[in-house]
Amino acid sequence: MKFFHFIILFIMLMSITTLSQCHVDNDHNLKHAPKKRTYIIHMDESNKPTVFNDHLNWYESSLKSVSDSANMLYTYTDVIHGFSTRLSPKEAEQLKKQLGVVSVVPEIRYELHTTGTPEFLGLGNTKAFLSGSDKLSNLVIGVLDTGAWPESQSYHDEGLGPIPSSWKGKCEVGPSFNSSSCNKKLVGARFFYRGYEERTGRRLDKNSDSKSPRDEGGHGTHTSTTAAGSPVSGANLFGYASGTASGMAPTARVAAYKVCWNGGCYGSDVIAAVDKAIQDGVHVLSMSFGGVAREYYADSVAIAAFAATARGIVVSASAGNGGPWSQSLSNVAPWFITVGASTIDRDFPGYVRVGNGKLFEGISSLYPGKPLQGEWILIVDGYNASEKTEDGAYCLPGSLVPEKVAGKIVICNRGRNTRAQKSLVVEDSGGAAMIFVNDRRSYKEELVTDADFVPTIALSLKKGDAIRSYLNSVANPIATIVVEGTKLAVQPSPVVATFSSRGPNSVTPEVLKPDVLAPGVNILAAWTGKVGPTGLYRDTRQVSFNIISGTSMSCPHVTGLAALIKSVHPEWSPAAIKSALMTTAYWTYKNGETIQDAVTGNPATPFEYGAGHVDPVAALDPGLVYDLTLQDYIWFLCVSDYTTEQIKTVTNRNVNCKYAKRKYSLQNFNYPSFAVPFEYSTDNASITVKYTRILTNVGAPATYKVVVSQVESAKISVNPESLTFVEANQKLAYTVTFAAGSKPSSTSQFARLEWSDGKHIVGSPIAFTWS
What we know:
Layout: H1 4-14, E1 37-43, H2 55-64, E2 72-76, E3 82-87, H3 89-96, E4 101-106, E5 109-112, H4 117-120, H5 133-136, E6 140-145, E7 186-191, H6 194-200, H7 219-228, E8 232-237, E9 240-245, E10 253-258, E11 260-261, E12 264-266, H8 267-280, E13 284-287, E14 289-290, H9 300-310, E15 314-318, E16 337-342, E17 346-347, E18 349-354, E19 359-364, E20 377-381, H10 389-393, H11 402-405, E21 409-413, H12 419-428, E22 433-437, E23 456-459, H13 461-471, E24 478-483, E25 487-488, E26 495-496, E27 516-519, E28 523-526, E29 545-548, H14 551-568, H15 574-583, E30 596-597, H16 606-609, H17 616-619, E31 624-625, H18 630-639, H19 644-651, H20 658-663, E32 674-678, E33 687-697, E34 702-708, E35 714-719, E36 722-725, E37 731-740, E38 747-756, E39 761-770
Parallel strand pairs: 6-10, 6-13, 7-10, 13-15, 15-16, 16-27, 20-21, 21-22, 22-23, 26-30, 32-39
Antiparallel strand pairs: 1-3, 1-4, 2-3, 5-12, 5-14, 8-9, 11-12, 17-25, 18-19, 18-24, 19-23, 20-24, 28-29, 31-33, 33-37, 34-36, 34-38, 35-37, 38-39
Helix pairs in contact: 7-14, 8-9
């Protein structure tokens, strides 16, 4: 039971079956939760009374005035000016009233949301990136996650030069982790746990999770090596997906910031980590975790990301695993690159053949043992092999009667526990193999793979129902399972992953999210040596690489790609890099058909894929970009009707919004995509809105002409219809007018706007909603 609590939560986080929209817990949901909770206190630096020598003394005095027992967990200097502490609600209210206190915000708990992907993304031929190859090794990618497993081959530093002199980070020492654990690839490693310990009431020890940067769960090692792992030949999981594993930015440096533990990732720790990352000198940040979307002043991750962006750091974040439900997104602030998940063109096919000769194709598990491969054996439904039929249908622990399943193939429904645990239950009960069937209540037809404990084939609901019909038609139903190994060039690909969270944006409907898609299904990358590939405490199998899925996996792909672009274009702002990735993203296959949604098999929409699937080579030369400055983001908050205190909580700045509210609007926010919300009108009156955008030329002089697709219920016009750029960095504006009549509430329609000079296509999706 050594890692039981940690592993069960960890697998729940990574399993697409159980990774529904990440929910933020409240203290009353924690067993034996104390009456106090953690708060993040934002102080107005300019209001420090002169009687105090420094800010620390001021913070301590302010805190002691409301509580004799409270201690500061962290003090913050870069993300915000302030501190975090544990207070009762009454004490928090008293502190709010003190001079110089901007806000007292309850801490949020967040949850964690490759051999084939470089080639799939067009990085097999790296000539386009050669001009920035030397500069890439000067960039440091900071990954906020569960830490790093420094012994992984993917952190080897062969061929890397000295660590950049600009790097100020360090390797923090802890159990099984010392200064020599870092090298010229893994240049920094820190850990932040005070918020976790205070919130949960648990103390980290060797039996729970290492109080060090060491990654004992695998998630952080997987994400950081996806972003920037060094090339490793012969990488595979049990012989599957064999090839050379490489991160997106293979010569960039990695700094691991461990903020996620066996109880989640806590806001006070996240802010402290980003505070240090800014001081250390990271260039790109990756955050594969999130919670329910909320106002930006109440979201610690959004606040921390704003501070990083304000200093020129690109921040990539996962969209969440709340699909296929609408408005399920995490990390929707406009300064994030919010990344959804897609499939790649590699799969692991297998099939079930039943006694009447019918064959049902699905996805095989990554089982390392002897396969059945044509051996005919009896098949049983878990529902009928249990005294608790409902539990047996899902193959829950202890639910299957060994006498009824021994030596047989067992059908198990998706849901209620992890996929890998179901296969362990089958093995424990003496079952020979498993058929894993999408459950009717999951509404998810997507098939993913696991490193199961018995031979397994995953099937869709429809095919599972057909097999059950066969079971009921004969006295002794038989079947066999055949696996076909790794299959390449699978089409169609990419497809929007079922679990990938979808829009519209519930906080700011005028900003379309997610921004882009990137590979997030069945991704192979480095793994920890502490737990097996399923993460279950009984899984003692040791692997160097693992295959897992989630927007946690798609986020670091974009992190690494952003580093590649930054190495070639170091002068570009984070917004320009995001714009390049968005406007060059593709939203159709080569045959012209729209990227599919795995939920339905029908064309996906910008609420699923954002601007489209990333195309890194095209993003190096986008022609034009939609740039944004720090002032733009501040004005965005002004016209979002935030109060002065709320804006300062996000920006750490005193802001006067009078000018912004006179001259600015959300419709003028220079975002690379368009979200146009219309309010429902009972009299069917026409509604007209205008959006203004500014394009910056980052290519040669050229004339761009606009093409706009039209939709049934809205008329779109652009003025002017052509833009002539005569020099680099020249900026030109245009206006788009959208006119529409009334539509039923919750209706949505989609269009597209493209500027082209004959060489470049600068594309923007348009999403209309009526509410």
